[in-house]
Amino acid sequence: MQKNLALVLIPLVIALGCAKRPVLYPNEQYEQSGQKTAERNVSECLALAENAGLETNQAAEAGKRTAGGAVVGTATGAAAGALRGGAGIGALIGLTSGAIAGLFSWIFGSSEPDDVFVRYVDRCLADRGYESIGWK
Prior knowledge:
By secondary structure, this protein is mainly α. It has 5 helices and 2 strands; from the N terminus they run H-E-H-H-H-H-E.
């Protein structure tokens, strides 16, 4: 059980660590402060946006894809199971595998942060003298 949990949590943590971040134009402020300080400012602005109650859409997107996979998996599993005389067990297997497939599609897919979240972080960076040229 613990090994199975680790197989799910490790990619999830990796995916969250790979969330999109602003890309800074190397203007005068960036050049003066250096990459390390600029990255710290990006992290601080991201944290301020999260503390302001703005969301990155990550949890909502994960939930939507997991639920969608579960629905499709349940229907498919029930139909396949019905052909073999076990619609209930087929639905259960489909539910589980569909939910896992949906979750992994989120983990390994790209999702965009919420527009308001992006504008908040970009404004925070601009107030500090940086220029965001996009998110990657």
